[in-house]
Fold this sequence. Notes:
Elements: H1 13-44, E1 48-53, E2 61-65, H2 78-94, H3 105-125, H4 135-142, H5 153-175, H6 181-207, H7 212-231, H8 246-267, E3 275-279, E4 293-297
Amino acid sequence: MPPMDTEPGTASTSVIAISWLGASAALPFALISAAIGQGLGALIGGCHWIGVALPLDRQIWALVNQPLLNFASLPRAGGYWLGSMLLPLVFAVTIIGFLPRARSLVTQLGCIQISWAMSLVAVAVLPVLDSEDGHLARFLALHGWPTALVWLSPVFAAGAALLPTLRLLQLARRRRPDIRRSYRLLVVAIHLGVPAVGWLGLVSLVRGSVLMPAIIAAAVPLIASLAFAWFRYPAPYVRPLELPQAGEIFALALAAVIFAASVWVAGRPLADGQSAGILWGTAQSSNNVRGWIEPWSIRGRPTTAQPFVDP
């Protein structure tokens, strides 16, 4: 293992580039993870998982055939409505802790970005994108609770976002044990703030307008991370780390391409405000395919999905 004084600092161009590359993989992966979370919740509730829709500017959907017409209002639909937030939240709070002895600087940066993306995209932003048909909003409405409670999701995201912030600052102190407050703020702004702004810009570009709910929701975990950097002076991460290797960087770039391509195929914007989707199964009468989703069947034949019928 190289000594700490030979490692590139967290503000070096090479480390920032690797971190942003990790963010370019982690951000679309957060959408995919949210869809997996809802799909798994639907399976537990007795649904048949038949496809997925991954729009950037709207609520993602795991497309399913529901066992009953009133499935959405039943207690066993809880995982269906909340899985898109719960699974990413689990990722956000555990991925760094599960790799406490990871010896690769690239792995550390990648885990930081995954934890941050899950907090930012899936836990903070997605629940507030659609106040009428969003997963959390529908869950609250079906149970007679105020839909304004969706704004608790950015608060949970803010708590989860402190974990990647802590690890990032720990890495920052490896080369500069006496880092000042301004440096801590700079590191957080560059590694976490820039990807967040880039993602919000992309979402607004796809929508064709600025989405203020998304901006406000994303600001909550970002402000929490900056506040943590302002007040917190964590101990340095002292375990030995390997310098970035070409194979690791290539794998990270490949993951970014695969995840971005998946989101494009399964969620790209179409004409007349529609969004793409993918079906690997056959939509039955009790499906949840929204009217704005135009799913493409991987079986190579036109789909016959009708607009959703859940209440």
